Amino acid sequence: MDKDRLAAFSDGVIAVIITIMVLDLHAPHATDLAALREVAPAFLSYVLSFVYVAIYWNNHHHLFHVVEKVDGALLWANMHLLFWLSLIPFATGWMGENHFPAVPTAIYGLSLLMPALAWMVLQAIIIRSQGADSKLARAVGRDLKGKLSPPLYVAGILFAFLDTRISDAIYAGVALLWIIPDRRIEHRL
């Protein structure tokens, strides 16, 4: 399979994920500004999730610039990533609609942890296919951000049962770590 076809499919899935999230936002029934307070948690969870999905889309775009060939393992690793990304709208809606309670906030953290792990698998499969001296292997290097993110998500999941504001701050903090696309790949091109 051509890598462009895989990237186009992934772009389509990510577009659907974002569409599902925005369709889950509901306008308030009242017409005054105070009515916006009721939908603020859903909107805030949407914004955070939109940023996360956009981060994955940006980095996926950069990642596939260095992919030389697509094989079955890469196809399945990419589908694995897309599967976990596709669950973000569910976790986003559950957390936001219920105003950030413990269990939905922990599940939201799990919905962030799993794509992060899937991303690591995807990178590892590409590096294994292309070799330890490939552009991607050199670009990723020690991958401090990639290795730091999963433990932070786990901390967010655990803190959800103590204070969900801490969890939300952790989730937002990890997003800030990744808000700038992974420039290591750009530099290797």
TrEMBL record:
Keyword hit for Ubl conjugation: no
Transmembrane segment boundaries: 6-27, 39-57, 77-95, 107-127
Reaction catalysis annotation: K(+)(in) = K(+)(out)
Pfam families: TMEM175
Record's bilayer topology term: Multi-pass membrane protein
UniProt keyword list: Ion channel, Ion transport, Membrane, Potassium, Potassium channel, Potassium transport, Transmembrane, Transmembrane helix, Transport
Subcellular localization: Membrane
A single GO molecular function term of this UniProt record: potassium channel activity
Protein name: DUF1211 domain-containing protein
Main localization of the protein described in the UniProt heading: membrane
One term under GO cellular component: membrane
PANTHER family xrefs: ENDOSOMAL/LYSOSOMAL POTASSIUM CHANNEL TMEM175 (PTHR31462), ENDOSOMAL_LYSOSOMAL PROTON CHANNEL TMEM175 (PTHR31462:SF5)
Record's keyword annotation contains Transport: yes
